[in-house]
Predict the structure.
Amino acid sequence: MASTVWKGYISFGLISVPIRLFVAAREHHISFNQVHQVCGTRIRQQIYCPHCERVVERSEIVKGYPIDKENFVLVSNEELKALEAQSSETMEIVQFVKLPEVDPLYYQTSYFSVAEDPGRRAYSLIHKGMQQLNLAAIAKITLHQREQIVLIRPFEKGLVLHTLYYPEEIRAVAEYDNQPEVAVQKAEVELAEQFMKQLTADFHPENFKDEYEGRVEQLIESKQGQAETPSKQPKRKLAPVIDLMEALRKSMAQAPEEKKPPQRATAQKKRKAG
């Protein structure tokens, strides 16, 4: 059963909807432990205090804000808890927006929301209204001792939330911002568009697999005598394109023929529980 990460209310005017939040997606990859090569034993990482010259227990650790390299202001969890905003228990909708107006660059973490029994009717009202108007809602919520701005949008049977980065958290990268604008010929643009259309298809996320992880799994199985050793993957040698038109023509000639996509399974069926 999935773990609740937040429990509180969505506030919409005078309407309050009790909900719970669940993490919608988690990164999945093969993980390795650090092992002592000599004896094959998993190593332990200990927390060491250089001043006391001893290993310390986690119960002895508190939060400290650095004033300089050697001095800290100590803050307790209780002191931080007392400062939490109302959004720690109530998520108030402050405005609605057209979904395309929020650039995906601001998206951070996704959550499913589930209404408690007393709030199902109001939850359904908000869901259907936003769905018909193609709107998303902006609200504030306190998660993990931090007040965050969130975007709420309809998705399948309910509402999903995406925590958003604040504008000051979006990095300014000089190398990106100062890129020179290079002129290209109209014929080059038209041929590029033609190639893009040739590769355009409906998005079916179930068609995409982590092929590297599959090869790592095969490597592990081969070391247990359960599979053949995976072959090394050849590295493509790429170089800057000199003749864009010729490169595009060759790309179009090499593009695979259009295939009928497999029957799409709904995200609801494909999604793993908890």
Remarks:
- The first helix runs from residue 77 to 82.
- Residues 259-269 have pLDDT under 50 and may be disordered.
- The radius of gyration is 26 Å.
- The first strand starts at residue 6 and ends at 12.
